[in-house]
Amino acid sequence: MLDVSDAVRAEIGEAEADRLLAGENDPGDYDCTSCRARGNTHQERTSTVLFVGEETAVLAFAHAACIPSQVVTVTEDQLQGAVRSLAADEPSPATGRTEPPAAPAAPAPAVPPPTAPSRAAAPEGGARQAVLGVTCGQVLIDDAAHPALVVEPTGPIARPGSDGPGDEFLPLLIEQGFMPVTEVGRLPAPVVGWSVLVAMGQLHAVFQPPATPGGQPVAWWQAHQPLAVTEGWRTAAAKSHTVVVYAAPAGSIGQQPREDLLREALEKAAAGGVLVAGTMPLTGT
Q1: 141 or 79: which carries more pLDDT confidence?
Q2: Residue 134 to residue 17: CA distance in whole angstroms
Q3: Average pLDDT for 110-135
Q4: pTM of the predicted model, to two decimals?
């Protein structure tokens, strides 16, 4: 009942893929790399998900109902952090790359941190960098809970090549396809070329389109350490395969400890004309 995509097969090799499908190397019981719930390769359809870094590759497993079998490219630092989150007794088949042993995961906090500050370049790769705060939460839209990220810089964002004191954060995002929000209860339009990376049940990065045609997506925001999200957030993301990303200038939202207060802050920002948003697909899990 194991699914091995052509992309995964190409990475791990025909022999290893055949051994997996024959049941020689499948783990039996596993923690789904998307929703983190337990699964069993002998009782339900299971996807193989290969996380590939610069020097390391890790084969993980997920419910086929959560995500399809695929290859997910991540940075080596992200992959090393994800490896440490795997259970020590969950072996990964050989992939032809150096693979360090998995270490026991540290216990996750009961309530994940409300924000994750990280350095990120302004849209379109501006030379000046800013610290962005990212808040994870669920937002009720059309009577359904949607996974959301709220991005707010700690200070003004200058346009690339400009030394002026103005804040160009929202205009830069609007040029990238984000749309002004007038009503938080309405689902924003998709932002083409952007995506959110959730790997092994944790938030890793937000990617923007490549700087040149045919290039690789660029990490617009990247967590210093993978950010824990709630089980409800993961479940909603696995169901919709999309994330709503809101953005507002510095001082518009603040660090809200509860989702109801976050919703109030979003509505206030929308009423003030300082909120933009877009929906993005999940990259990987």
Answers
A1: 141
A2: 38
A3: 48
A4: 0.62
Predicted pLDDT of residue 205:
86
Instruction: Look at the block and give the residue holding tokens 């994750």.
Output: 116
Three-state DSSP class for residue 142: coil
- CA-to-CA distance for 41 and 96, rounded, in angstroms? 23
Q: Return the structure tokens found at 90.
A: 């969950």
Mean pLDDT of 12-35: 82
Lowest mean pLDDT across 98-102, 159-163, 194-198, 271-275:
98-102
Where would I find the H helices in the chain? Answer: 6-12, 14-21, 76-84, 169-175, 231-240, 259-271
Above pLDDT 90, what percent of the chain?
25
Q: Which two tokens stand for residue 259?
A: 């989702």
> Rounded to 5 degrees, what angle do the CA atoms 263, 135, 54 make?
150
Band (pLDDT 50/70/90 cuts) for residue 81 is low
In DSSP terms, 228 is beta-bridged to: 202
CA dist 173 and 164 (Å) reads 18
> Do the Cβ atoms of 176 and 191 come closer than 8 Å?
yes
In sequence order, what are the residues at sequence separation of 6 or more whose Cβ sits closer than 8 angstroms to the Cβ of residue 120? 129, 130, 131, 132, 219, 220, 221, 222
Q: Residue 251 phi/psi, 5° resolution?
A: 85, 0
Q: What is the dihedral of CA 187, 138, 192, 6, to 10 degrees?
A: -120
Annotate 119-134 with three-state secondary structure: EEECCCCCCCEEEEEE
174-204: b or e for each residue (b if 16 or more CB lie within 10 Å)? Answer: eebbbeebeebeeebeebeebbbbbbbbbbb
Here the tokens at position 82 are 């994800």
Res. 87: pLDDT tops 90: no
